[in-house]
Amino acid sequence: MRAALLQLTSGDDPQDNLTQVLGMVRQAVDQGARLVLTPEVTNCLSPDGDHQRAVLRSESDDPTLPALQRAAADAGIWLLIGSLALKTDDADGRFANRSFLIAPDGRIAARYDKIHMFDVQVSESETYRESKRFRPGDRAVVAQTDFATLGLTICYDIRFPHLYRMLAQAGAQILTVPAAFSPVTGAAHWEPLLRARAIETGCFILAPAQTGTHPTRHGTPRRTHGHSMVVAPWGEVLLDAGTKPGVYTVDLDFAQVADARARVPSLNHDRQFGGPDV
Ligand SMILES: O=C(O)CNC(=O)[C@H](CS)NC(=O)CCC(=O)C(=O)O
Q1: How far is residue 26 CA from its own chain's centroid?
Q2: Which entry of 44, 87, 130, 155 is annotated as an active-site residue?
Q3: pLDDT tens across 21-45, in order?
Q4: Does the model's pTM come out above 0.80?
Q5: Catalytic residue among 44, 87, 114, 203
Q6: Checking CA distances to 99, which of 32, 72, 207, 208 falls within 20 to 30 Å?
Q7: What UniProt keywords apply to this chain's record, in alphabetical order (predicted)?
């Protein structure tokens, strides 16, 4: 099964980003992909909340979603939209950071709202307060395809291993981790976190990423780590896309899931225990 990860440098103009992505989906299809994945905030990566309030739409009138549903249906592929930033009807005006799995007939097979918010000071000069702008989700999601069961997660979720274990124990064979990782934490943590989750769960990890310096006319441009990655269930890195935007394909052999889990069945070895006493 061939999968294609789209590595993007999304800017703050949803229309520009959509044009880019549609072109790359066509390339991925020409290269034989049956599953195509895009990174976190495919539609708009912006340092400015006011600009987002001006350009973002709710799920029901967002133009990116139906355009990508049509692209998936035209090509007859599965499409994981890593996430769209969408308005919600929340009183506090926060957006949703929502993944969509689109089926080959164009329908929405699953939605997942990012659970863990990146509220972190990564260095003296670099602070993120995701929960100021985004409303966290509160439900884990698995979805069936005709080739495997997917568990959906987003970016900072990667630091919460119990979510991944729960998804694998619920039947997932592929865990998706679309991301816009910070350069500082990305250099130190991205690859080992992804490899650890693959090894712990015996799942394929598919992690399409934002990369580079994200164009904006509203404030200091954000930078992201890139290195879209695919990890096999035994822990080998099958793909590291480096830092250039583009279409990156990889062939997945699902027999490796059962094989890794047969060699080390730790997913079935949970025990009940007490403590620690504090
Ligand atoms: O804000 C947006 O527009 C899109 N969302 C993101 O870029 C999010 C929240 S700021 N980034 C992360 O979760 C990075 C996690 C990370 O870098 C780590 O865990 O070290």
Answers
A1: 20
A2: 155
A3: 999 999 999 999 999 999 999 999 9
A4: yes
A5: 114
A6: 32
A7: Hydrolase
